[in-house]
Amino acid sequence: MTTRVKWGVTVAICVLLVGMFLYPRIRDKVKATKETQTQPVPSGTPLSRQRLSVEAEVLDYRPLTDKTIVTGSTMPDEEVNLSFESSGKITNIFFNEGSHVKKGELLAKINDQPLQAELKKLEAQIPLAKERVYRQQTLLAKDAVSHEAYEQVVTEYDKLMADIDLIKARIAQTELRAPFDGIIGLRNVSEGAYASPTTVVSTLTCIAPLKIEFSVPERYATDIREGTPVIFRLNTAGDLMEDYPATVYAVESKIDESTRSLKVRAKYPNRNEAILPGRYTSVEITRREIKKALAIPSQALIPEMGRNIVYLYKNGVAEPVEIILGLRTEDRVQALEGLQAGDTLITSGVMQLRTGIPIHIDNLN
Q: Which of 17, 189, 259, 281 could crosslink 232 through cysteines, CB 3.0-4.6 Å?
């Protein structure tokens, strides 16, 4: 037998002897503990008065607002693709991309030389046509010509002037002018290119004011009308949210059958043109507002057998009170009856509360 094996056997024998010595003492202690735990409580002994730690709130009147938040997007007030009304080679482009233009400003032009030549030819006939009308009118006054002959030259003069107006209208179609004030976008053509009515030269956009388009569920349709104020939010630098006020100016005439929602549009002045169209936004709609309401946190409410119960802190214990509810918001509910300003409402641990249970308030708001 090696020395290592001898030492192992010696240690095992020592551990066994120590265990045999200590076991009776451990057994007696465990038995005594069990007997103490199972010993019955003598009659008349009061129950434990250990207090339940909770949070509470002293009730007071406050404004209560019912709000709805939906998603939407920003839109230009006006937007149009700019195209010529006639076909031809582009001879001039007068605008700078991304610049502001005024209504009626000439933006581009296509070749109108043949039309100008025809206009000049027709305008050269005006003096002779006028002279014929004057001469026939003079002769008619002297009964030297028939009334029919006079009307014929007048008709020829009117036809000449109509032809001139037609040529001028065709010349106007060779000019591309801004239909409203706005910002012109990037151009898609160059001078010398052939343009037709289907050719989009550029896009003109008016972003002041700015439109906000969103949809609300059909159950809120009666809460939205012209003049309703809304708040829309946008992400700014650093992922911060900034609020902007807008006003509803138009509501769709019917509910969308596919989404069961009502489309709404609001306007924001956007005077500095800082907000661009096409941005995603959240829209906050105030449906109803009560200036002075006794509102409690929603987590303090306990629905119970068709009743609404809350617990108040009175004289160190919890006391249940039945209340009548009014307006609801995301985190609060209005108490119409059952509570008064100054009551101390228990707001945490409500599922553990029972009538008369001792209470210790850890945090009082």
A: 281
Q: What is the C-alpha separation between 234 and 273, in angstroms, rounded?
A: 14
pTM > 0.85: yes or no: no
**Along the 365 residues of the chain, how does pLDDT read in single tens digits?**
555 556 565 666 666 665 565 556 555 554 444 443 334 434 343 434 578 999 999 999 999 888 889 999 999 999 999 999 999 999 999 999 999 999 999 999 999 999 999 999 999 999 999 999 999 988 888 888 888 989 999 999 999 999 999 999 999 999 999 999 999 999 999 999 999 999 999 999 999 999 999 999 998 888 899 999 999 999 877 677 899 999 999 999 999 999 999 999 999 999 999 999 999 999 999 888 888 999 999 999 999 888 999 999 999 999 999 999 988 888 899 999 999 999 999 999 898 888 999 999 988 88
Residue 44 resides in a domain: no
Cα 72 to Cα 97, 141, 266: the distances in Å are: 29, 75, 10
Q: Which domain holds residue 308?
A: 53-65+291-364
Asked if residue 183 and residue 231 are part of one domain, the reply reads no
What DSSP element (H or E) covers 115? Answer: helix 113-123
Residue 324 tokens, joined:
């009548």
Q: What is the 3-state secondary structure (H, E, C) of 79-102?
A: EEEECCCCCEEEEEECCCCCCEEC
Distance between CA atoms of residues 54 and 361, nearest Å: 5
Q: In terms of domains, do 285 and 298 share one?
A: no
State how far the alpha carbon of 63 is from the alpha carbons of 95, 229, 293, 324, in Å.
54, 18, 6, 18
Question: Is 236 part of any domain?
Answer: yes
Give domain status of residue 344, yes or no. Answer: yes
